[in-house]
Specification:
Largest sheet: 9 strands, mixed
Strand content: 15-25%
Number of domains: 3
Structural class: alpha/beta
Distance between the termini: 56 Å
Shape: globular
CATH superfamily of the largest domain: Periplasmic binding protein-like II
Number of strands: 11
Radius of gyration: 23 Å
Number of helices: 12
Order of helices and strands: HHHEEHEHEEEHHEHEHEHEEHH
Length: 296
Amino acid sequence: MNWDDLRYVLALHRQGSHKGAARLLRVAPTTVSRRIAALEGTAGTKLFVRTRERVNTTPAGLVLSRHAERIEAEVAAAERASLGSAKGLAGPLRVTGGDALINHVVIPALDQLLSANPEMAIELRTETAVVDLSRREADVALRLVRPKEPALVARRIGELPFGIFASEAYLERHGKPRTLAAAAAAHQFVGYHGALDHLSQVRWLHRAVRPIRYALRASTLTSQVIACGEGLGLALLPIFSAKRDPRLRQLFTGHTAPSRELWIVFHSDLRGDPRISKFTEWLSNVFDPHILARRT
């Protein structure tokens, strides 16, 4: 058995499609099909069956996937042990977070970190999905919820206040609402798509503005900031992100709006990694309220 083939089994089991597995492994879908077919020939049994909706794992494939998961965990643990014993700052540090945090806070200030530490190299992933730090999908994650996994270290580095914003162009066309009730009665909103209604700031908005009428729903905050700036409606946005667009004006400043805690999270095996220590120290300074206020 080619041990590398087990990565293909695990990816196909998790993704349920050859395209999804190929995207995860960064290969062509035909490569996934070929490697799985070769492994099925070696094993002498079917590991996957294709249906109209997805590729399903057979009982034999499920057994092999469980072995592959244990191998993956051991390899990831070995990588973390190696990284945790690192002495210098050289080498890539993979950081993941929401698009607004990465694009509006991390990237604009990143030159400060890299100029002082030129041996560092940062790899950024912007996504709403929570990546698995145990599988080394990233080294550091910026999260708005403190994780519960005992293997993860979480450090609170600040709060992200939200506010309701609208563009000057929108307010000129539709008037400025004086109350949240007026906003609900006569104005439209830009917000997250329905799959993200569970977010605490979205729940707050749905309680405060009833009923709410959406003109546009998007999966990222960056899209919402742009749409709000273009005059498509009111939007509940992080203040640090909205204030980067000079077209936007904050409404209802006397009304209590939600805020989210920001946590920097990494695996406990990487506690001694100097790159993570340096990045955490730098990001804590970036999120100092006074520094953040000057930037925005």
